[in-house]
Amino acid sequence: MKIFITVLLLACATIAGCSGNAGKTEKTGEKEATSTTETEEKTGTLELTEDQMQTVGIETGLVGQRNLTSVVKANGQLAVPPQNKADISLLSGGTIGKISVLEGQQVRRGQLLATINNQDMIKIQQDYLTAKNSLIYVQQEFDRQSQLKEAGAGTGKSYQSAAATLNTEQARITAYESQLRQLGIAPGRINNGNIVSSFPVVSPINGTVGNITANLGAFVQPGTSIMEVVDNSSIHCDLTVFEKDLMRVKVGQKVNFQLTNQDNQNIIGVINGINKSFTNESKGVIVHAVIHNAQNKNLIPGMYVTALISTGSELTPAVPVDAVVRAEGKSFIFVVAGQEKDTEGKVQFKFKKAEVITGVAELGYVQIKPVDELSPDTKVVLKGAFYLQSKATGGGEEE
Questions:
Q1: Is the dihedral of CA 146, 148, 152, 153 positive or negative?
Q2: 225-236 residue pLDDT tens
Q3: Which DSSP symbol is given to 279?
Q4: What are residue 64's DSSP bridge partners?
Q5: In which residue ranges is the amino acid composition biased (Basic and acidic residues) (predicted)?
Q6: Which of 92, 269, 330, 386 could link 255 by a cystine bridge, Cβ 3.0 to 4.6 Å?
């Protein structure tokens, strides 16, 4: 009986040992199957055979030197010249009796914008009419003294007094007429007895009505702006160029704009002015650029832009546009990290990502500047980078 129990225990131990070895073998196989993938993920390298490269159309070569346009990158915003923007303010205070326009409305120079009621206007017109009537008497007295002087019957003192009084009255009337014209009232209309208690506010330029800051019936103090009129036909761009790039920027250079908040819409312009002083403490100088065909692009002052100022051509490292891929908001190229033969004697090429900063793109090539310096003999992928990017992300969607 004891012998039977001993044999049974030995058999169980043997079976358990075999089962354990089988489990270890299975786990080892799984590790071997995933070791290549884990290694690629950790090292960031991809491996392809020469046949695979030919199948998907991957081509490699050295980073070339291309004669591309050199640019200076600058940021700024759209603006209009001072003569194309008018703040509509009042020379004399009063109550707004009528507003004849709406925000966004197109107006012409001299068009009525609003009407201001002011009772003091009546006194100005009365004083003007009084001065006109007084001038008649003063003129007659001056003519009488002139005749007496010519006849030798008058005195020189009386003639001089009459002449001085006439000049004073004429100056007073001229001042009243100028004041009335500034308020938009024709002096000839008052001469006919048409006294008014309000004066018009007209647009000084052609343009679009901007923000209206006053309401009907509001009392407005002299010098207070009630609205603005902007003429966008001469809109331009004010760019900030920093000291390190200032010597490369000159009047007449071409500028490519991108509207930051308008789907990066492209606009062409030309530098037409460079300030000669720094703005605040930023060590930046404002550069002015006119925009071609600005009136047909629905541009508004205050829009933010990113600009590339063309400063000439220079020899620069460049690769085909298709050689650069985007991922996680950065730009990359693939470099050949090495090659080796597998067990079957086939050549395996290793590829690795290298982050680059891209510059100007022209004629199918894009300027690149590697973040980590590459040796001159480093080969990169010139064609087929998209396939490697898809393989690196497991076939996921490329950003």
A1: negative
A2: 999 999 888 888
A3: B
A4: 318
A5: 24-41
A6: 269
Q: For residue 245, what pLDDT band results from cuts at 50, 70 and 90?
A: confident
Q: What is the pLDDT of residues 184-213, one digit of tens each?
A: 788 877 777 778 888 888 999 999 998 899
Report which listed range, 66-75, 219-228, 253-262, 344-353, is most confident. 219-228
Among residues 361, 367, 281, 272, the alpha carbon closest in space to that of 318 is found at 367
Helices 156-182 and 120-151 sit at what angle, rounded to 10 degrees?
Answer: 150
pLDDT of res. 68: 75
d(CA 294, CA 265): 13
H or E segment at 160?
Answer: helix 156-182
pLDDT beyond 60 at 369 = yes
In this structure, the number of other CB atoms found within 10 A of the CB of residue 336 comes to 15
> CB–CB of 334/353 below 8 Å?
yes
Please answer whether residues 232 and 106 qualify as being in contact, where contact means their C-beta atoms are separated by less than 8 angstroms: no
Rounded CA separation 289/93 (Å): 40
Q: Which amino acid is at 225?
A: S
**Which has more confidence, 195 or 219?**
219
| Distance of alpha carbon 201 from alpha carbon 90, whole angstroms | 8
* Cα 86–chain centre separation: 22
Q: How far apart are CA 78 and CA 315, in angstroms?
A: 32
Cβ pair 217, 95 in contact under 8 A: yes
List the Cα angle 177/179/183 in 5-degree steps. 110
Q: Is 11 helix (H, G, I), strand (E, B) or coil?
A: helix
Q: Is 236 exposed, middle or buried (0-12, 13-18, 19+ CB in 10 A)?
A: buried
Query: What 3-state DSSP class applies to 293?
Result: coil
| Contacting residues for 183 by C-beta, under 8 A, at least 6 apart | 91, 92, 121, 199
Residue 311: which residues within 8 A CB-CB, separation 6 or more?
Answer: 70, 71, 72, 248, 249, 250, 253
pLDDT at 289: 92
Q: d(Cα 133, Cα 194) in Å, to the nearest integer?
A: 16
Contact 350, 47 (CB under 8 A): yes
For residue 282, what are the contacts with CB-CB under 8 A and spacing of at least 6?
240, 242
- Identify residue 44 by its one-letter amino acid code: G
What percent of the chain is modeled with pLDDT above 90? 16
